[in-house]
Automatic annotation (TrEMBL):
Protein name: Biopolymer transporter ExbD
Cellular component aspect of the GO annotation: plasma membrane
Entry keywords, A to Z: Cell membrane, Membrane, Protein transport, Transmembrane, Transmembrane helix, Transport
GO molecular function: transmembrane transporter activity
């Protein structure tokens, strides 16, 4: 008979305990940072009856039909013209100087048949269910561009830098917490001048 070879056994019973202790160590020592952001409400789907409570002159109706055509207040409009149309509506400032809600920073035409104040101005986006998604996204981009350009103008006037730059600084990892507090206050003050009042209604 051959000689028996004795193999030394490795006791692996404690390996699970060691792995568990390492896991506990990392769970206890790892710091998980929770980002503090500035909320942006996405447009909510509304019923036509809710919009009906607002004066018609304070509503800009943007419609995308089944073919992807764009209608603004009933007029066929090219996509490239949409941004300036929305800016003119938001920035109109139709109230007189004697009105408490007069918009002193508005640079629009101040037409009495258009929006009274940016805080009252509502853009209503209606779209056909069969409309192309690409058309919907393109219109959304133009609407947001109109808001951002007006906000950039006021941010430059008040703080010497664009609103979009402030938003970028706020989310950068290297921005200190103290700086974020100041930047957030600036962002919210600009948003108050041109609040995003964008509603969506699906056409039936």
């Amino acid at each position: 008979m051959g000689k028996k070879t004795n193999f030394s056994k490795v006791n692996a019973g404690s390996m699970a305990d060691i792995a568990f202790l390492i896991l506990i160590f990392f769970l206890v020592t790892t710091t998980i940072h929770s980002d503090s952001g500035i909320d942006r409400l996405l447009p909510k789907l509304q019923d036509e009856s809710e919009i009906g409570l607002v004066q018609e002159k304070n509503i800009l109706r943007v419609i995308i039909n089944e073919e992807g055509d764009l209608l603004v207040d009933g007029q066929i409009t090219a996509l490239d013209e949409l941004k300036e149309t929305v800016k003119g509506f938001l920035d109109n400032g139709g109230l007189t100087k004697h009105d408490p809600e007069y918009c002193g920073y508005c640079l629009g035409d101040r037409s009495i048949i258009s929006s009274d104040n940016p805080s009252r101005a509502i853009v209503v986006l209606s779209y056909d269910r069969k409309a192309y998604y690409s058309s919907y996204i393109a219109v959304q981009d133009k609407l947001m561009a109109a808001y951002n350009e007006l906000r950039n103008r006021e941010a430059q006037r008040l703080y010497g830098e664009d609103y979009t730059v402030l938003e970028t600084k706020f989310v950068q990892p290297g921005t200190s917490d103290d700086s974020k507090i100041l930047i957030k206050a600036k962002i919210e003050s600009i948003r108050a001048l041109y609040p995003l009042k964008l509603s969506e209604i699906e056409t039936k």
